[in-house]
């Protein structure tokens, strides 16, 4: 496994659930702490200049683990279940540019809160709007060697695809080889009865993982059973990224350091290169 930490641009608002802000500074800080990569939480593809990013990564011997898209919903209110034609085009254009970026960096684009909600729509209509967009974007991504990863998110943030079973059902309906699952143990702690069992049950779909404690602060705080999580990941021979996506408390530096120290001290054997 490889370990990454979520970062965003300097001006990202507080509902971007990232540890560090400011792309260049964040990459340096993450590298100094011993992380292997960074997850780029983007609001807009224009936040990244490809050449600058290449230089920042190679100067620090770092990789991009994935591009995440929560801010596209949080800051721009664009989502897959949107019915307005023009907003759908804007979402599609944003995701196509994320996919273009991911074809050079990380080859993964996340769909978290950007999937959208059902709200007062007919649930079947909302689902169909999601499936149409997911299918079109999967085809675009597939041609560029990129996978889309759908993240089950807890019911207090969104009312559509909350647990791993529901995510697997949607993946089967999308039915594209590059449309996969991305569990986040923070959400699983709220929505999935048994975290270890759910990870094992859906092993074939899992391509990326978010780590946080039960209260979304540094790993090792809270009451998650990390032995259960690592034993299950080991059982399914998970070799992908594990990304720390936590609130930056009490400071970004302390949160990021505490998390990697906890992992290396207790589960370092899973991160041997
Ligand atoms: C939101 O709670 C989250 O976990 C993000 O990764 C998805 O938007
Ligand atoms: Mn997450």
Model description:
- By secondary structure, this protein is an alpha/beta fold.
- It has a single domain (2-270), classed as Divalent-metal-dependent TIM barrel enzymes (TIM Barrel, Alpha-Beta Barrel).
- Helix content is 43%, strand content 14%.
- Strands 1, 2, 3, 4, 8 and 9 form a six-stranded parallel β-sheet that branches. It has a three-stranded parallel β-sheet with strand order 5-6-7, with helices on one face.
- Helix 5 (123-142) links the parallel strand 5 and strand 6 (147-150).
- The termini are close together.
- Bound molecules: L-Erythrulose (LER) and manganese (II) ion.
- Manganese (II) ion (MN) is lined by residues 112, 151, 184, 210, 245.
Shape: globular
Biggest pleated-sheet summary = 6 strands, parallel
Q: What is the β-strand count?
A: 9
Radius of gyration: 17 Å
User: Per CATH, what is the topology?
Assistant: TIM Barrel
Count of helical stretches: 10
Annotated CATH homologous superfamily: Divalent-metal-dependent TIM barrel enzymes
SSE order, as H and E? EEHEHEHHEHEHEHHEHEH
Query: How many angstroms does the end-to-end distance come to?
Result: 8 Å
Low-confidence stretches: none
Highest-level CATH class: Alpha Beta
CATH architecture: Alpha-Beta Barrel
Which molecules are bound besides the chains? L-Erythrulose, manganese (II) ion
Instruction: Tell me the strand percentage band.
Output: 5-15%
Number of domains: 1
Which class best fits the helix and strand makeup? alpha/beta
